[in-house]
Amino acid sequence: MLAEAGTGAYIGGSWVEAGSGRTLEVLDPATERVLASVADAGPADGLAALDAACAAQSDWAASPPRQRAEVLRAAFELLTARAEEMALLITLEMGKPLAESRGEVAYAAEFLRWFAEQAAHVGGTYRQAPAGGQRLITHRQPVGPCLLITPWNFPLAMGTRKVGAAIAAGCTMVLKPSELTPLASMALARVLTEAGLPRGVLNVVTTTEAPALVAPVMADPRLRKVSFTGSTPVGKVLLRQAADNVLRTSMELGGNAALLVFDDADLEAAVEGTMVAKMRNMGQSCVAVNRVLVHRDVAADFTAALAGRMGSLTLGRGTDAGVEVGPLIDARQRSKVAELVRDAVGAGAGTLVGGTAPSRTGFFYEPTVLVDVPTSARIHREEVFGPVAAVTTFADEAEALRIANDTEFGLVGYVFTRDVSRAVRVAEGLETGMVGINQGLVSNPAGPFGGVKQSGLGREGGDEGVEEYLETKYMALAL
Ligand code: NAD
């Protein structure tokens, strides 16, 4: 049955109810009240979305790259024109303060602009065979229908980072956003449709039954690729499922970022960088700093300044003026944060500020600074995904690198120093896909975002972003 635009699943260019007629409720994490009800799709709906993507694939692959670029560019303009409305939607369903949601909309839109610019630049090669005679030609073709799975923490930007690249490459797709924040992806589908995206190229299914919906889509031999952003355990499940059909995979998984402050650092810049790397999204970011490693000679000054900043942040509903810290996404996430803080304190850490959840409605947790956190504490190994800065001191560069690399994750690291040689040495020594040097933010649509070790496979954005959605066809031409 047809559904009202924006409440259903978006399949083959129509908004439809879930086959079961069931709906799922979206909560505002600041008030714990229901914001909206949307389709709760099941496995048959997931397969219907894949049918639509498959039906659209050959025409879309044959479309002129310029047409794809123009759709993306128009979507960039529309999203930018509607920034305020989109930002409000993100704040309501996800909780971050409005100023941060505006930042996310701008970041999300930039992916569309970037991939619009990339779409017409996909090229091949032509070369003479080394032995002469033959000519070797390479041509780039879209991978084919893709499954794109996104998390709740950047509900719009994690979508455009995948959808933009897939559109530029000529792929069709099924987008499955997090059940906690489905509204941003549904709004994105409306924007892309208005921008001229043909029916069936993008299909969106929202569900509380992710494993049940995703498994048959992954098992369908028509699917060619899965791109996932989320936790490492779920990424591993998907990698195992992907093995059966030898799917192309892109995995943007968990992080455990270390931020290193050396004794020659500009301490003010280091505190500012730590605030950005720690507190963006209330710490619910895969690139959030999880472990702050500070040289012992500057630790007292650094932590005092950091505690001053963290302790003076204003907590509240993201729509209220002056609010700098919103709620966490749900009660489960808040319990995880509280548990890791308890564990660190039990292991001997001190609490300079915060350390508790305020007693009020909403899933809030106070900005917290822990000091002298022993490396045996769980927070050194597990992503806290909350507003907790765990500070540990080091004696020299070798020790700092050893602690930073002592994790199975490898998404990003940060280094603060005035010594250029040290910055380069440490950046090269960090076992991560990305490094912020004297700054707490690395995300940029023109830069290749991604991790090594168990933080993932592949890159999103940069020149690499479109590559993830392309195959190389090689033709040998006899002369
Ligand atoms: P999650 O792994 O619980 O969920 C991510 C998505 O996967 C959601 O859409 C969810 O519905 C779906 N999902 C869950 N189980 C599934 C299954 N068995 N089969 C198929 N789909 C399934 O992660 P989350 O809690 O939404 O997000 C937080 C995690 O995401 C953190 O670990 C964070 O580091 C990571 N993350 C990584 C990046 C990155 O670029 N590396 C960016 C943002 C978030």
UniProtKB/TrEMBL annotation:
The residue ranges of the Aldehyde dehydrogenase domain are: 15-474
- List the active site: E252
- CDD domains according to UniProt: ALDH_F5_SSADH_GabD
**Record-linked InterPro entries:** Ald_DH/histidinol_DH, Ald_DH_C, Ald_DH_CS_GLU, Ald_DH_N, Aldehyde_DH_dom, Aldehyde_DH_Superfamily
A molecular function annotated in GO for this UniProt entry is: succinate-semialdehyde dehydrogenase (NAD+) activity
Record keywords, A-Z = Oxidoreductase
Gene Ontology biological process terms in this record: gamma-aminobutyric acid catabolic process
Report the sequence similarity comment from the record. Belongs to the aldehyde dehydrogenase family.
Which protein is depicted?
NAD-dependent succinate-semialdehyde dehydrogenase
